[in-house]
Amino acid sequence: MPESKGRAKRAYTPPSKPAKPKVGNPVWFVPVMLALMILGLLWIVVFYITSQQYPIESLGRWNLGIGFGLMLIGFGMTTRWR
């Protein structure tokens, strides 16, 4: 009885690695984050230094809310900073 020929086996090739996702933030991210925190701080400082007349006198104590809101947005952005 004739003997069958063996098949040539292919050399093992490991599966290709998937491309790494881009890690990091856009160029504008850090300057905007810092600008919001500094702007909020300056807003509150100006409010107190000018005896509550500036930045917007008609808002009264809401100027504090605006200043703290700007700072909170900036600090919130720090959680996304890579």
UniProtKB/TrEMBL annotation:
<comment type="function">
    <text>Involved in cell division.</text>
</comment>
<keyword id="KW-0132">Cell division</keyword>
<keyword id="KW-1133">Transmembrane helix</keyword>
<feature type="region of interest" description="Disordered">
    <location>
        <begin position="1"/>
        <end position="20"/>
    </location>
</feature>
<dbReference type="GO" id="GO:0005886">
    <property type="term" value="C:plasma membrane"/>
</dbReference>
<dbReference type="InterPro" id="IPR009619">
    <property type="entry name" value="CrgA"/>
</dbReference>
<keyword id="KW-0812">Transmembrane</keyword>
<keyword id="KW-0472">Membrane</keyword>
<keyword id="KW-1003">Cell membrane</keyword>
<feature type="transmembrane region" description="Helical">
    <location>
        <begin position="27"/>
        <end position="50"/>
    </location>
</feature>
<dbReference type="Pfam" id="PF06781">
    <property type="entry name" value="CrgA"/>
</dbReference>
<dbReference type="GO" id="GO:0051301">
    <property type="term" value="P:cell division"/>
</dbReference>
<comment type="similarity">
    <text>Belongs to the CrgA family.</text>
</comment>
<protein>
    <recommendedName>
        <fullName>Cell division protein CrgA</fullName>
    </recommendedName>
</protein>
<feature type="transmembrane region" description="Helical">
    <location>
        <begin position="62"/>
        <end position="81"/>
    </location>
</feature>
<keyword id="KW-0131">Cell cycle</keyword>
